[in-house]
Amino acid sequence: MPTESHPNQTGDRVEAAIDALKALPFVSDPLPGIGGTIKATPEHFVVEEILPYTACGQGEHVYVTFRRSGWNTEDAARAIQKCLKLAPTDVGYGGRKDKTAVVEQTFSLRCGESRPLAEIEQILAELPFDILAIDRHRNKIKTGHVAANRFTIVVSQPEPDALPRAQAIAERLAQTGIPNFYGPQRFGHGWQNIKRGFALFSASKKGRKNAFMVSVVQSTLFNIWLKQRMETGGYGRLLKGDIVKKTDTGGMFTVEDMAAEAPRFENGEIVYTGPIYGYKMKEAADTAGEREAALLDQYGLCAEDFRPLRSPGSRRPAILRPDDLEIHEASEGLQFTFTLPSGAYATTVLREFTRSM
Fold first, then answer.
1. Does residue 25 sit in the same domain as residue 124?
2. What does the pLDDT read at residue 357?
3. Which helix (H) or strand (E) holds 82?
4. Average pLDDT over every residue of 154-167
5. Which residues are known to be catalytic?
6. Does the residue 241 lie in any domain?
7. What is the rounded CA–CA span in Å between residue 290 and residue 3?
8. Are residues 233 and 300 in the same domain?
9. Residue 2 has pLDDT above 50, yes or no
10. Which of 124, 191, 280, 338 gives 325 a disulfide partner, CB atoms 3.0 to 4.6 angstroms apart?
11. What CATH code is carried by the domain that includes residue 64?
């Protein structure tokens, strides 16, 4: 049965969750950070979206790759929809991108097969976006249809000895990997999204659908789970019952033989995953499972609470290992370039260097 929480208890849990997110640990401690500022200008934060496939040249959907700045993804999608007089559901995209950034992102537009590409391109040229590519494809781009994102980021005004500090941190991270925390932008200004998300689980609002706000609650709990794992010494090792993911094929299984799987984890062949709680989430077992269940109970929730909100849940890799991280001096600071899988946050990587979030 879904849990019921007293309003005061719910409020206390929400505040506890916010406090926990304000103090996430750093895996590169005690190395000194570089300081500095991220996103001093949009040009200092460039993200290029990489789709898992290219447009085939046929179909009722038109794929348009735009370069933009000063627009978040939702506002850009609305502007495109109104420009072409489409329904909101006719516009698709793979993920949300930051407003304070230079973004290259592809949208799918259900325009039909008979509407000429030249006409569509001419209409879209009225928008304050650069059109980089346009072609047809058979299917809509849906959330998650992103293979990776390539980042070029300048950290401005860092400490005077920032480069050797950054290089030392990078060497440490190459050994430990990077905790795959959700970035602070997911939680809203003043952490308001967390409050809105947890409110959906209250008795008075049960059944209201808001997929993004539910995901905020899931992201909050994942971050707290990973924080607890780091603080209890479990970050750099497997636990019995962990659900791990193969880094080459993506296959997942439960750890039963610790002696056999520990070397594979150390070699980067597998990575343990954390809970994105939901009514169909695959649960960890033994020690790992006990910890996941205890955290959900700590916040007055159970798996069935996610069913009315239509959120089945999933698993998320706990550790990032970008293998193409490069750091160079730039005129205004240090420039970082790296590629992350879909769903990972560049700010999560940069916080290990700046120590500012």
1. no
2. 65
3. helix 73-84
4. 96
5. 98
6. yes
7. 19
8. yes
9. no
10. 338
11. 3.30.2350.20
Task: For residues 193 and 310, state if they share a domain.
Answer: yes
Q: Give the structural domain span for 136.
A: 56-102+109-145
Round to whole Å and give the CA distance between 148 and 269: 19
Burial of 131 (0-12, 13-18, 19+ CB in 10 A): middle
Place of tokens 């920032």: 162
Closest CA to 107 of 71, 126, 81: 81
Q: Nearest CA to 253 among 234, 275, 270?
A: 270
- Number of folded domains that form the chain: 2
Whether 259 is covered by a domain: the verdict is yes
Domain final residue pick, 289, 305, 320: 320
Does the residue 265 lie in any domain?
yes
Q: What's the CA gap between 43 and 69, in Å, rounded? A: 8
Please report whether residue 345 resides in a domain.
Answer: no
Average pLDDT over residues 172-181: 97
Backbone angles phi, psi at 125, to 5 degrees: -65, -15
* Residue 311, CA distances (Å) to 18, 34, 94, 215 in order: 22, 39, 18, 8
Inform me whether the pLDDT recorded for 3 exceeds 70.
no
- Which whole number is the average pLDDT over 148-168? 96
pLDDT band at 108 (very low <50, low <70, confident <90, very high): very high
63 and 32 fall within a common domain? no
Residues 118 and 72 in one domain: yes
Does 120 share its domain with 90? yes
- Please tell me the predicted confidence (pLDDT) of residue 207: 55
| Model confidence at 206: pLDDT above 60 | no
Task: Work out whether the CA dihedral 78, 83, 88, 94 comes out positive or negative.
Answer: negative
Q: 314: burial class by Cβ within 10 Å (0-12, 13-18, 19+)? A: middle
Exposed e or buried b per residue across 165-195, where buried means at least 16 C-beta atoms within 10 angstroms of its C-beta: bbeebbeebeeebbbbbbbbbbbeeebebbb
Examine the domain organization and report whether 230 and 286 are in the same domain: yes
| C-beta separation of 241 from 287 below 8 A | yes
User: Which tokens in the block code for residue 88?
Assistant: 């909101």
CA distance 206 to 199: 9
